[in-house]
Amino acid sequence: MTGSLETTQGATTVTAPDVSGNGTWDVEARGVWKSFGSVPVLRGLNLRIAAGQRAVIVGPNGSGKTTLLKILATLLRPSAGAARVAGFDIRSQASEVRRNVGVLCHQTYLYSELTCLENLLFYARMYGVVDPPQRSREMLRLVGLEAQTDTLVRSLSRGMQQRLSLARAIIHEPLVLLLDEPDTGLDQRWAGVLSDLVAERAAQGGTTLLTTHNLERSLDLADRVAVLNRGRIVFSARREDLDVGSFKEAYGRHTGAAA
Amino acid sequence: MWEALRKHTVAIPVPRLEGRLASFASQAMAVAAKDVRAELRTKEVASGTFIFALLVLVIFNFAFDLRTGDNRTLAGPGILWVSITLGAMMGLGHVFSKEREQGGIEGLLLCPVDRSAIYVGKFAAALLLTAAVELAILPLFALFTDLSVFLPPLLLTVVLGTIGFVAVGTLFSAMAVHIRTRELMLPLLLLPVAIPLIVAAIEGTRVGFEDKPWTDMLPWITILAAFDAVFLVLCPWLFQYVMEEMGS
Asked: Cβ distance A76 to A70 under 8 Å?
């Protein structure tokens, strides 16, 4: 099975057709192309992820993982093709997409001269969260940074900044979470906590699309996995149909790289 | 542990108009408060801007004898506005500098906010910073020149000139943020557009220094107010396109 990441479980998941319009898929990309100058990064990519699903995309450097997530988050415009996130079109309904998406990227989007609490308060207000102080403190507890509430972000370790950035990404309770190599800087304990969070969100109907270089880790986090190479999804499978060995073999076969 | 998470089953709809207006104000204030708080913590931009403006005053004070003769009213207004605009331009160059750290621009772009709210917040913070520097510079200018600037019509001229300059400067600061030579590009973009405003401010200030009736300043004050109105309408509107282009 190649060419698209999708599931037959879509009909059983809860969707929001009254506000999102099309209802079936939380993430849907059709024929998405993206070029930087004359260099194509995504080449007619197709992708469908049902509500409540945890999808992980792996791929070598430069395969287009970050570009795909940025397009779905409305940070980049596709050169061609269409995509919908949470039922909203990323071009014509970008504001609605942003309201329903949480993004964790390589960059933390945090302000180094503000404290942990001030950073979360800022984003809570920008997202129109009800009772920003209470929600911000909840998020600090969630990511284990209560003791650092009044610590400047520039004083935090990379791992702590990543946890705070995760809190920032979910402070507005997004329907869809886009995580670009979220394990960066996290120790084993917090990588495990991240897995629990993604699983818990999935149990509650939240959808997660995640990218990573780590094949074993991708199997820990995913309901479905896909391999992205040279801007196309070249392999896709359900988690239960794969073990580490068969996934590594498929990865090597489709990317020409040793896993 | 996950009690803070809730059911994620329904896409969040866009708020109604009255809610959007309240959100606009709240989000603009959040942006302004963030910038002011960060600046109060470091004082990097304010102190640099003040010292630069002060140096301009000192240099001109030595270049012209500003305490005697006609020099005061001839050169004084120009020196005051060169000091204000060059100092303000230094500060404006840093309006979006904090956003460059850790990809803050993308963090802002991800927020489901009216882009104009971001502009208004940035403008308010830059205006506060410039006003603070002016509050320090004006008494020093009065000390160097023996000219009083603390007369209501003169202060109104300074306020209107500053509002217009910061309004258009905030827009160009956003446009220059991704340019590698932004320190060079900002003055090249900003000054040609701001020159009519600066000329009106200088002429209004000159009339004020010449001890003429304040009604003689009225044409210049009117021109400045008109510039401000145009800039304050056009700049937030154009800012939306600047922000969208950042995501292209």
From this structure: yes
